[in-house]
């Protein structure tokens, strides 16, 4: 079962640390990792292209598959019309609402793959189960990041992460949860079994914890791929559907006959059709009900005639 970590911050100033984090995640048992770029500020830049280079400027394990992800803070609806352009530039798009209005919009209407809330501060809105379940029903993952609670030295910050994660798990009932690290260093990463134990302490069922590391991330990645590579997430063109060209005239394909000589395809087709007709003629046709009744009446009439002739003699 492949395990996912869909939130590893990309640090262009220190690529060596990112390399160590990726190598350590692979040693822990993760197979798919998403490198995250976060846009700061309330306005989007003119250039929406992904700053994460492909391929990466350093060597990683050949069995480790990397994705690109964008974290976009939402403070208003001014950037909603550019979400489709952002989805085309990244493998995953994660929205981070900052108020009640943007949270309700993200869960109900906006096109995204993940909703990632900032767990290090108290939520500035009321987390309603009905609102969050709208996103879960649409196939959007609700992310819970554990690294801030593991490596933080501030007790208040750890308390905020634990309280917010518990509220998210309670609001969703454990459905649609994604467990990610958000670790900037290798020291903040934990193995899948340890992450499931941490989530169990926060109230997530162990079975749900395994789904949050494997099944739910796989669904999110597959859905995001369909959105980019298909028409409205329904039809994906994998072949143009061209029909083979049949040449006419003397260049028609030939088939081997029973005598070993080559014959034209039309002659072979005619022989097959004639054989089928002969077989159909040899097979007895089923009698209709009218014919069966007629034959039965004829047999009864013949029996009555025989009895009359016998009585006359």
Identify the strand order in the major beta sheet: 1-2-3-4-5-6-7
Global outline? elongated
Estimate the helix proportion, in percent.
Answer: 40-55%
Overall mean pLDDT stands at: 84
Share of residues in strands: 15-25%
Ends apart, CA distance between termini: 95 Å
| Secondary structural class | alpha/beta
- Radius of gyration, CA atoms, in whole angstroms: 35 Å
- Identify low-pLDDT runs: 252-260
Largest sheet features:
7 strands, parallel
What's the total helix number? 11
Number of strands: 9
Please give the oligomerization state of what you see: single chain
> What order do the SSEs take from the amino end to the carboxyl end, as H and E?
EHEEHEHEHEHHEHHHEEHH
Description of the molecule:
The structure is a single chain. The chain is α/β, with parallel strands linked by helices. About 3% of the residues have low confidence. The strands form two sheets. A seven-stranded parallel β-sheet has the order 1-2-3-4-5-6-7, sandwiched between helices. Strands 8-9 form a two-stranded antiparallel sheet. The chain is elongated. The chain starts with a strand and ends with a helix. It is built from eleven helices and nine strands.
Which characteristics define this entry?
about 325 residues, alpha/beta, 7-stranded parallel β-sheet, two-stranded antiparallel ribbon, 9 strands, elongated
Q: Can you describe this structure in just a few lines?
A:
This protein is of the alpha/beta class and 313 residues long.
């Amino acid at each position: 079962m492949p395990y996912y970590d869909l939130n590893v911050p990309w640090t262009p100033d220190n690529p060596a640390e990112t390399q160590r984090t990726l190598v350590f995640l692979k040693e822990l048992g993760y197979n798919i990792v998403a490198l995250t770029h976060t846009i700061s500020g309330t306005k989007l830049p003119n250039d929406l292209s992904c700053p994460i280079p492909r391929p990466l400027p350093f060597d990683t394990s050949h069995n480790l598959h990397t994705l690109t992800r964008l974290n976009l803070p939402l403070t208003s609806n001014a950037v909603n019309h550019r979400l489709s352009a952002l989805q085309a530039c990244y493998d995953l798009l994660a929205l981070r609402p900052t108020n009640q209005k943007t949270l309700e919009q993200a869960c109900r209407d906006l096109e995204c793959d993940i909703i990632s809330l900032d767990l290090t501060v108290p939520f500035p809105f009321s987390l309603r189960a009905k609102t969050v379940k709208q996103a879960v029903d649409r196939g959007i993952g609700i992310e819970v990041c554990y690294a801030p609670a593991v490596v933080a030295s501030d007790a208040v910050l750890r308390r905020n992460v634990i309280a917010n994660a518990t509220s998210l798990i309670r609001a969703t009932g454990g459905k649609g949860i994604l467990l990610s690290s958000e670790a900037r260093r290798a020291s903040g990463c934990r193995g899948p079994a340890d992450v499931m134990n941490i989530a169990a302490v926060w109230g997530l069922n162990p079975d749900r914890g395994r789904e949050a590391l494997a099944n739910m991330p796989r669904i999110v990645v597959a859905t995001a791929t369909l959105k980019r590579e298909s028409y409205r997430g329904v039809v994906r063109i994998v072949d143009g559907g061209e029909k083979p060209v049949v040449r006419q005239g003397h260049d028609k394909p030939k088939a081997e006959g029973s005598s070993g000589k080559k014959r034209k395809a039309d002659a072979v087709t005619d022989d097959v059709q004639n054989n089928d007709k002969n077989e159909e003629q040899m097979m007895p046709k089923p009698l209709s009900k009218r014919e069966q009744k007629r034959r039965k009446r004829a047999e009864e009439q013949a029996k009555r005639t025989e009895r009359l002739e016998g009585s006359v003699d």
